[in-house]
Amino acid sequence: MAILVLLHEGLTIKKIPIEKPELSIGRSTDCDIFLEDSMVSGHHAKIEMQESPDKKGLFNYFVQDLDSTNHTVVNGEMITRKKLEHNDKIRIGRHLFKFIDESAALSDKTAKLHKSWIPGVYYTEE
């Protein structure tokens, strides 16, 4: 599962799970993620979740700007549409989100190497 983490001065304000195929972000109250910010358009951006064609059961996530006035910025670059990667930072108006893909975070875990009782044989527990 993936989540958006709303940050303020490096601190986590809110965690928003991405649980449906599309999340709308904007100043309009009908958006899934409502941002009360005059720099944010009514329907500013959306996050899309699509099943990976290569890996069944895994998902790819995309952010798309919806022709907003002040644009959507990912890792310092204005985008129209971009595939999200684990730890990407998304700026919408004055709000900063961090994209966390828990499936990618788990695959980044380093396996611990153990020495067996057999000389020269090592193993991992995973």
Task: For the structure shown, list the relevant keywords.
elongated; 1 helix; 13 strands; mainly beta; 126 residues; six-stranded antiparallel sheet; five-stranded mixed sheet; 5% helix
Tell me how many strands there are.
13
Helix content: under 10%
Which structural class matches the secondary elements? mainly beta
* Low-confidence parts: none
Binned strand content: over 45%
Element order, helices and strands? EEEEEEEEEEEHEE
Distance between the termini: 21 Å
Oligomeric state of the chains? single chain
User: Tally the helices: what do you get?
Assistant: 1
Task: Identify the overall geometry.
Answer: elongated
Structure description:
The model has no long low-confidence stretch (mean pLDDT 89). 5% of the residues lie in helices and 49% in strands. A 6-stranded antiparallel β-sheet has the order 2-1-11-10-7-8. A 5-stranded mixed β-sheet has the order 4-3-5-6-9, with no helix packed on it. The chain has a two-stranded antiparallel ribbon with strand order 12-13. The chain has 1 helix and 13 strands; from the N terminus they run E-E-E-E-E-E-E-E-E-E-E-H-E-E. It has 126 residues and is mostly beta strands. The longest helix has 6 residues, at 102-107. It has one helix at residues 102-107, and strands spanning 2-8, 11-18, 22-26, 33-34, 45-51, 59-65, 72-74, 77-79, 81-83, 89-92, 95-101, 113-115, 122-124.
